């Protein structure tokens, strides 16, 4: 009987997905399957994965006819899965040793959701950027009546889909299509309503995240300044004080983020015309965002490095 399906949605990751699979396969048992859903990659992802299919009868590879996007592809992975719980794992990160055993030990306790802590390393895993993404000393259990506390504790971390282990039947029953294109369908499924049973947050970092390898870096402004806040503000049953900080206010924090995106060359006149010209904002804010859009990006890099060097040197290392 399959208790855990590790579901990976991938696209054009031939150069790195093998390392991910090699961190998972040695830990698999007869209670675990590994399912890779390929959104019609145009590189040699298929040939890379085919090398691993012979290693274990519980490894499956499904190549889609077309790329549906991260949200739809993870949905398809859960639909194809056979396990009671589905781990929505990423195609470029690693499992630490004995991780699957740790998760299996928790599966019979009736959790709707398990959130797995992680460490963050640089792109080649040679340097630790953050040893503990969730600053927890011990595991935490949130009952079905503590959704607000769960949201407060985990929502900044839940932008990372690879930490989510969720009850498959719950996923299938909940609304999903409204979250297609949000880039964070798992957050929509989890928080669209209170969970039916408790959630577990595991304090020990069991995942190693490869920082700086996101496929959506060029769309960072669109995702983090528009899609992410819109999603979080859609959960109307949550108190206003929990979501107010995610509303798109004209603030110093948002200004700093726009300068940051300009420094990464992810914000220019093109993004200004698309996102800010039609926005219902004061005239001074439009002028300010226009000035950032035409500012040479290397000046923006100097501003961001100077700011982080003063207020957050650890973040400066991560930004680099």
Named CATH architecture of the largest domain? Alpha-Beta Complex
Describe the sheet with the most strands. Answer: 10 strands, mixed
* Series of secondary-structure elements, N-terminal to C-terminal: EHEHEHEEHEEEHEHHEHHHHHHH
Number of domains: 2
Taking all Cα atoms into account, the compactness measure Rg is 20 Å
What's the CATH H-level superfamily name of the largest domain?
Spore Coat Polysaccharide Biosynthesis Protein SpsA, Chain A
Tell me the helix content: 25-40%
The fold-level CATH name of the largest domain is Spore Coat Polysaccharide Biosynthesis Protein SpsA, Chain A
Average pLDDT reading: 90
Strand content range? 15-25%
The poorly predicted ranges are: 311-320
Shape: globular
Distance between the termini: 46 Å
The number of helices is 14
Q: Based on DSSP secondary structure assignment, what is the total number of beta strands?
A: 10
Q: Would you tell me the structural class of the helices and strands?
A: alpha/beta
Provide structural commentary.
It is globular, with a radius of gyration of 20 Å. It has helices at 17-24, 45-50, 70-80, 99-104, 147-154, 168-173, 185-191, 220-232, 240-243, 252-263, 269-276, 283-294, 297-311, 313-319, and strands spanning 4-10, 32-38, 59-63, 85-89, 94-95, 113-121, 128-130, 140-142, 164-167, 199-210. Strand 6 and strand 7 form a beta hairpin. It has two domains: 4-210, Spore Coat Polysaccharide Biosynthesis Protein SpsA, Chain A (Alpha-Beta Complex), CATH 3.90.550; 217-319, no CATH class. Strands 1, 2, 3, 4, 5, 6, 7, 8, 9 and 10 form a ten-stranded mixed beta sheet that branches. The longest helix has 15 residues, at 297-311. The chain is of the alpha/beta class. It starts with a strand and ends with a helix. It has 14 helices and ten strands. Residues 311-320 have low confidence and may be disordered.
């Amino acid at each position: 009987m399959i208790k855990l399906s590790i579901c990976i949605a991938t696209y054009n990751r031939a150069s790195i997905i093998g390392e991910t699979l090699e961190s998972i396969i040695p830990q698999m048992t007869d209670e675990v399957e590994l399912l890779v859903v390929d959104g019609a990659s145009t590189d040699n992802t298929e040939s890379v994965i085919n090398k691993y299919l012979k290693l274990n009868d519980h490894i499956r590879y499904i190549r889609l006819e077309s790329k549906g996007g991260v949200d739809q592809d993870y949905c398809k992975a859960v639909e194809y899965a056979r396990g009671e719980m589905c781990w929505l794992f990423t195609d470029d990160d690693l499992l630490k040793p004995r991780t699957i055993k740790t998760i299996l030990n928790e599966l019979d306790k009736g959790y709707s959701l398990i959130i797995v802590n992680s460490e963050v390393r640089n792109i080649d895993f040679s340097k630790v950027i953050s040893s503990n993404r969730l600053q927890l000393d011990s595991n935490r259990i949130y009952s079905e009546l503590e959704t607000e506390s769960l949201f407060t504790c985990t929502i900044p971390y839940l932008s990372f889909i690879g930490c989510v282990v969720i009850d498959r039947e719950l996923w299938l029953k909940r609304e999903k299509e409204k979250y297609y294109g949000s880039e964070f369908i798992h957050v929509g499924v989890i928080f669209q309503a209170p969970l039916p049973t408790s959630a577990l947050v595991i304090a020990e970092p069991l995942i190693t995240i490869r920082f700086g390898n996101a496929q959506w870096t060029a769309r960072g402004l669109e995702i983090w300044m528009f899609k992410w806040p819109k999603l979080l503000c859609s959960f109307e049953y949550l108190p206003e004080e929990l979501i107010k900080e995610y509303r798109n206010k004209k603030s110093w924090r948002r200004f700093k983020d726009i300068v940051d995106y300009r420094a990464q060359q992810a914000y220019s006149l093109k993004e200004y015309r698309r996102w800010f010209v039609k926005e219902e904002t004061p005239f001074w804010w439009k002028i300010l965002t226009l000035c950032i859009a035409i500012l040479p990006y290397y000046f923006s890099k100097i501003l961001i490095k100077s700011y982080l060097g003063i207020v957050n040197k650890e973040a400066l290392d991560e930004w680099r």
